[in-house]
Amino acid sequence: MKLPDLIATGWLEIRSHKMRSFLSVFAIAIGIATFFYTLSILSQRYRDIDRTAEISGKGRLDTTVERPLSMDQYNQLLRMLPPQASLSFQTDEMFTSATYKGQILTGFFLQGLLPTWQDSAFVYQVEGRFFNWQDIKNKHRVALIVVYPREKEPRHISSVDSGPAGSVQLQDFVKHINLLNQSITISDQSFTVVGILRAPPVEKDFRAPEDQESMQKIFIPYTTWYDIAPRWWDSFSTRVRIVTGSEDKAARATSVLHSFLRQQFGPDFLPGIRLFRHQLDIYRQGAWHNLKAMIFIGLIAMIAGGIGIMNITMVVIFSRTREIGIRRALGASRLDILLQFLTEAMLLGLCGAAGGMVLGYLAVLHMANNTSQLTFSWWVVAASVLLALGTSFLFALYPAYEASKLRPVEALKYE
Description:
alpha+beta, 12 strands
């Protein structure tokens, strides 16, 4: 019997027993919907993590030193690192206020940066310019302000004390007033805003959580930050970030940084150096762990659907025993009988796969946190179809095999 004939016969049998077929298709569809949803979300999460790795830079490592580091120490460490490595220092964050044309601006942190801060996890559109090494060398009074886009769902930016009466939150103020090339006063000193850093929308911000701002910020040059607050020189920490350009160089850079910090602060100093690739591994494990329960539910539904298909196949064989005998008497082989019932079962599985993928797609659209960047992979579709067909095939194989073993004489006697 040719494949088109097998499909036609199987489809006719399915349509002849609509309710019985629907129940099996429904169970398969629920299982496939669960798997489709889980695999789609997992695939998207892995793509987001890959984007995080891409913008963060290869061979990245971070540490925090509970002491300020000078530019002489910066240059000394940079010479020790592998060629082409990027080294960045960040100061602590200082809560303060600013004044613009008599208006007090509050609700932000002040932080010092180096130009190399752009080399990792930099997702902003720069309006104006960023810091340069002349700003660092001459301790220029220049500033960068982060501006967030208007969004339906505001990002999680912590709120702080609103400040004195009449003051305005900087985060709200910069949405209406462009401060580029304007002068603001910070710590009784005048700063020129040379750049506006426009952050991407939340759904397009693929930075790691530790790289995202939890508070509105104004950035100033690293050396300027310490220059305007010298009395705190021994009280603040420094965040050190190195991007080597390859994971192979990261191990060497880790050793260099470890030796440098011990040389600077004594042999008992224990720096906590973090390789960013380990953090990415944690993200991937977390994504998989969070979805394992969904996969288990899908597996139970698939087993239930498979058992339903097995029962239906056995009932069909029982009701068509005489037909099997007639076909065998007319020359049908055992393989023909086996293929006939397997085809019917796999058609049920294919219908379940189609329905399940539709349900899974709708679930993704309504339940996923971020659908604007959501894409569907062909391998998820292929895996869903193969899973449904495989389940149908395996659970129908035994009853189909038993049907193929029926002897024509005994089958023809069946009433």
